[in-house]
């Protein structure tokens, strides 16, 4: 019994190895798969046949020959199933339907004027249903849902605290699974964005990267040794709630003087209102302030630079703590890059410990890059592909 079980486990692991090789090298011949994996050609041929039967792999026309008969090429069937990935922000939902490579098929954007969970959940379900209606037919259909949220999420997908949404102890993963009956992953949006950038943002991913998500709040995702680091319970990276001003402004987390009260979208908009930088008939937004800055509104530009100084202080702390090679600034305040990037880099170079600052690069990635969505799609795809070990 034990020997039979061990043989089964080895076979399933070999099948996963063959599939991963085809995914990474597609198109690829059977002979090349054997060469890359170290498995013999008979084993590879048998496993490939199973993968074709399971709809994970398809065959294409013959490839180039190095002598002799031209080989039949193998392709990963990226439309064998689809995922739906969402980025839930304060005031919006971004969502996308992706194939099994993470390529976006179609996407949706919805503005939110509600924060009460039951109402927001209804909107989430509506967006997912709209994307399901747009999903092409496939062998596996919808294989998973991933949603990134701005808050503290444990390993069970429970949102323990999302201060800017006024949410506590929300079982979002269970609620979505009950509606759609597919695997659901809930993760902190900054963690998802960091993973999405590592997977899709670089030709050669950095080994040590920090992603600073600056929206209504501030979060940080950490890639250390090319692995997403989330800490003991999944709570690492709450950069927005480090104290930067003693006895400072009250924060929704219950503390005072938190980083995000001085360097976030919320801080920017509050200061803009306080300083009278918009007229009564204008709807306050980051985009409106950017329009004014582009028109050379000096008070708005000065406010951008003040917010940038606080961002620079936080980034300098990150550099000194983690010694990364890459820091990416994303989410809504990444749009301020033309006015703050140079000052931030100068501040970090001047104030980070010298041997830390010499190799670090600070860049901005736009919200249109959909970093969180790409990360959540990756999580859902990887969870589904692990099931290859269970497919007979």
From TrEMBL:
The keyword Cytoplasm does not apply. CDD domains: ASKHA_ATPase_ROK_BsXylR-like. Gene3D superfamilies: 3.30.420.40, Winged helix-like DNA-binding domain superfamily/Winged helix DNA-binding domain. Coiled coil: none annotated. SUPFAM superfamilies: Actin-like ATPase domain, Winged helix' DNA-binding domain. It holds the Pfam family ROK. One of its GO terms (biological process) is D-xylose metabolic process. Keywords: Carbohydrate metabolism, Xylose metabolism. Belongs to the ROK (NagC/XylR) family. Transcriptional repressor of xylose-utilizing enzymes. This is Xylose repressor. It comes from Halolactibacillus alkaliphilus.
């Amino acid at each position: 019994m034990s020997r039979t079980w061990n043989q089964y486990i080895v076979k399933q692991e070999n099948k996963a190895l063959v599939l991963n090789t085809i995914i990474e090298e597609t198109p690829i011949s059977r002979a090349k798969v054997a060469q890359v994996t170290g498995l013999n050609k008979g084993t590879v041929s048998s496993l490939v046949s199973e993968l074709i039967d399971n709809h994970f792999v398809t065959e294409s026309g013959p490839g180039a020959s190095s002598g002799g008969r031209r080989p039949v090429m193998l392709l990963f069937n990226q439309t064998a199933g689809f995922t739906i990935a969402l980025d839930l922000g304060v005031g919006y939902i971004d969502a996308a339907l992706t194939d099994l490579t993470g390529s976006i098929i179609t996407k949706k954007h919805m503005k939110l004027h509600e924060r009460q969970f039951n109402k927001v959940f209804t909107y989430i379900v509506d967006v997912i249903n709209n994307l399901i209606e747009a999903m092409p037919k496939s062998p596996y259909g919808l294989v998973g849902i991933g949603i990134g949220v701005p808050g503290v999420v444990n390993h069970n997908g429970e949102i323990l605290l999302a201060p800017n949404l006024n949410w506590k102890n929300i079982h979002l993963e269970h609620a979505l699974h009950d509606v759609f009956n597919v695997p659901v992953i809930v993760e902190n949006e900054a963690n998802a964005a960091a993973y999405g950038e590592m997977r899709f943002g670089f030709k050669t991913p950095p080994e040590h990267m920090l992603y600073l998500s600056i929206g209504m709040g501030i979060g940080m995702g950490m890639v250390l040794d090319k692995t997403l680091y989330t800490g003991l319970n999944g709570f690492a990276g709450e950069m927005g709630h480090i104290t930067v001003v003693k006895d400072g402004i009250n924060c929704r987390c219950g503390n005072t003087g938190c980083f995000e009260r001085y360097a976030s979208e919320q801080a920017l908009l509050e200061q803009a209102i306080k300083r009278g930088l918009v007229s009564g008939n204008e709807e306050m937004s980051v985009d409106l302030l950017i329009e004014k800055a582009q028109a050379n509104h000096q008070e708005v530009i000065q406010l951008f630079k003040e917010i940038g100084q606080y961002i620079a202080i936080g980034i300098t702390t990150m550099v000194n703590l983690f010694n990364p090679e890459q820091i990416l600034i994303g989410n809504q305040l990444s749009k301020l890059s033309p006015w703050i990037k140079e000052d931030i880099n100068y501040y970090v170079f001047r104030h980070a410990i010298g041997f830390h600052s010499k190799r670090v690069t600070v860049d901005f990635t736009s919200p249109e890059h959909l970093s969180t969505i790409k990360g959540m799609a990756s999580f859902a795809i990887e969870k589904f592909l692990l099931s290859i070990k269970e497919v007979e």
